[in-house]
TrEMBL record, chains A, B:
This is NAD(P)H dehydrogenase. The keyword Oxidoreductase applies. SUPFAM superfamilies: Flavoproteins. One of its GO terms (cellular component) is cytosol. It comes from Nocardia jinanensis. Belongs to the NAD(P)H dehydrogenase (quinone) family. The lineage of its organism: Bacteria, Bacillati, Actinomycetota, Actinomycetes, Mycobacteriales. Pfam families: Flavodoxin_2 (PF02525).
Amino acid sequence: MAVEQLRSDGHEVRVSDLYAMGWKAHADAADFGAVTETNFMLASGEAFENGSLSADIRAEQEKLLWADTVLLHFPLWWFAMPAILKGWVDRVFTCGFAYGAGGSAIPRYGDGVLAGRRAMLVVAVGGREPAYSDRGINGPVADLLFPIHHGILYYPGMDVLPPFVVHGAIRVDDERFGRIADNLRKRLGELEHTEPIGYRRQAGGDYDRGLRLESGREEPGTTGFGLHIAS
Amino acid sequence: MAVEQLRSDGHEVRVSDLYAMGWKAHADAADFGAVTETNFMLASGEAFENGSLSADIRAEQEKLLWADTVLLHFPLWWFAMPAILKGWVDRVFTCGFAYGAGGSAIPRYGDGVLAGRRAMLVVAVGGREPAYSDRGINGPVADLLFPIHHGILYYPGMDVLPPFVVHGAIRVDDERFGRIADNLRKRLGELEHTEPIGYRRQAGGDYDRGLRLESGREEPGTTGFGLHIAS
C-alpha cells in the first residue's frame, strides 16, 4: 500500500523485505570476507574500506546512499525492533560507513554518511495507546523509539520525521484498517514537508567535551531523552 | 570467568552461548510446527500449548524455568541488544509462555511465568560513561536498558537487579580488565542479597484501567520511565 502510494506520487521506491530476502540476522565475521583485523568492530571497518563486506550488506549500504527518504516498517516486539531488522542495522551500519572507531573523524548525530536524507518509522504496536502514553505502564512510545530515532537514524545524519504509530494492532478490522491506510497515505504525501524531530547536532555547540548537554540549554524540567530535542 | 566464579560459589550453571549454538535469530512460522492459527502471535501460543515449538525454543524455555537467576551478557550495539539476543527473546518469550493474547489471564509486570527468579544484565558499552549519564548525548544508560529490564525481564515476572555495565569497552587493557573482573565477581557473589530495581507491579494498585500510573504516586518531578519505579 505504501509502495503503491509513493509510486503513484512519482517517487522511485526500492524495497528491502528482509524476510522475503532471507536476510541473515546475526552479525559475524563471515560478513567481512578476508580481513586482517581481529577486533570485530575494526574488522567491519576494514571490510568496508577494502570492499570485502558480503554482497547483501554492500547492497543495503548502496540503497541507503541512493535514497532521499528511508522508511522502516516493523511491529514493535518486546518494545524494540524484531531481531531480523535489528540485524539489518547491526550488519549494514558498519564501522567506517555509519560510525568511526574511537577518535576517528566520522561526524555523527546530525552529520554523517546519511546526512540530507529523511527517515520515518511505521510501527505497529499491539497494545493500546494509554499504556504507551506519558504515564503508561509500557513507557511513552516516543521514549521507546528514541534509541532507534536518535541512536540509529539520526546518528549517521538522517533527519527523523515523527513516527507513524498504529496502536492496538493486534486486532484491526477492515474499517479501521481503511482509516489507518488513509492516514498513512496522507503522511507519505507530506514526507518532504514534514518537520523533523528537532534533535541537537553533536557539532552544534550544545555538548561539552564529555558529550553531556551544557547546563541551561533545555526547557526547565526537561529530563532524560527529551534533553536532546532542542525545539 | 563469571561461570567459573558462580560454580566455585556452589551454583549450578547452564550456559546458552547463542553464537556457539548457531542460534536462529529471526522468528518465523517454522518455529511453530503444525498449527492451525494463521495469526503469528496466536500461532506461537498454539505451538506452546500443543508442544510443537521447535526444540531449540523449548530447551530455552525449560532453562528459564529451571533457573533461579538469569544473567544476560551482551555488548550494547546501536543502543540495544545484538540481533541474535533479541531473536532469543522474540522466539523464546512466546505467547502462552511469557505473555497472554489480548484479554487472557497471564499476569505480567512483576507476576508471570518467571516470577520468583532474578535477572541481571552484564553489558559492555563502547562509549564512555559521561556520554551515557543523565545529560549524556546517548541518553542515560538506565533509560536505554529500561525496555530490556522492565519490558522483557520484569514483564514475565523476574526481579531485575541493577545492571553490571562496563563503559569504554572498546579498549580495555589487562589492568582494567582485572578490576572489571573483580567487580563482576563481587556482584556475582552478592546475587541473592542484591536489592532489585523497585518496579511497580501491574497488579499492585498503582495503575488505572488504561494502565496509566495513577496521579500522585510518584515523587514530584519524576517523568518517563522513572515513573514505574516505586522506590
